[in-house]
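Protein Record: Sequence and Backbone Structure Tokens
======================================================
Tokens: labelled as protein backbone structure tokens, with as many entries as the chain has residues.
Task: work out the structure tokens from the sequence, keeping to the layout shown below.
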Amino acid sequence: MIDRRRFIAISATALASSAAWAQTRGPIKIGAFGPMSGNAAAQGQSVREAVEMVVSLKNPAGGVLGRQIELVIGDDAGKPEEAAVVARRFASRDQVVLAIGSVSSPASLAAAQVFREEEVPQIVVSGTAQRITTQGNEWVFRSAVPDRKLVADLVDFINVKMPKLKRFGFLYVNDDFGKGGFDAFGEAAKKYGMSVTTEERYSRGDLDFTAQLTRLRASNPDALVEWSRYTEGALIHRQIKQTGWDIPRFGSDGIGAPAFLDLAKEAANGVIYPTPFSPATSANLPAAQDFIALMRKTYNKPPDFVHAQAFDAINIAIAAIERANGTDRTAVRNALRQTDHHSVRGPFKFDQKGDPTLVTHMVRIVDIKETDARS
């Protein structure tokens, strides 16, 4: 009979061989996470649809390095504490090579702390808070344009197109996303002599903005900027319309989702906002036109900006794994730094911080549809 110690040794060898086989021959695991439930679930669904669409095309064509891609989907419900749990599970139990997510800045930051500890490359899909990539975290990259650039480009746009607007009321959600937008606006506005008449904040999930809007209106601004996600943003613009306040309105990239138009209806008309991607602003981008056609064929609908950011992220991730010629996380991270990709939003490279070098698109809502505000 085999004695106990020999049995243990044989078992350990078998397990090691099995693990080695899984790393070299088994599926390549990529994690994708975001708010699959909760009040930002529409954006989480966009992440899922985009990554699944790419993988469904890649796997029948041979996968990556001759191996199939296995997507591991996580739901953080838009909550930082849930994002941290998902990140830990991805890193340890699921053994993903790379993670794509999340949508909100607080959730992306919480996950980034875990991925940094576990040394897992992360591509943030839509979190725009500047500090995601300014904390010396060498494992985090971003598909989204950071809020400082989004806001600076919006301010430049206002100065060119509406130079008489100088005094702005500012309403924002009181978290990293909203505060980042407000701070960036204040900095960018100085060079054009613009100022904020008053700032108002609200908590995520609030439904009534009457008090904040009343105080903002009393400050007599030339225009209003609100830095929100699509659910609260739609409520804010509906309440502005209900009060009869006729004022130029600007929003954040967070409202650039079809769900915003579905919820806001006519109240969205006239709103201008920066966005990383819109079908209405992408006529001169061949990759974007192919992407739009693929989305319509696959899901019978046009893509939103989260689709675009997630689509770029999964393609960039796959290309990095191919350049790394394997699934070693450090090698994949280093390969991400070499990204030079023809994305659906234009030529895409990562800068030294891990942010994309992209041009911001500007949208104006007309007849409850996106149009190119620059045209």
Summary: The CA atoms of residues 279 and 299 lie 15 Å apart. The mean pLDDT is 93.
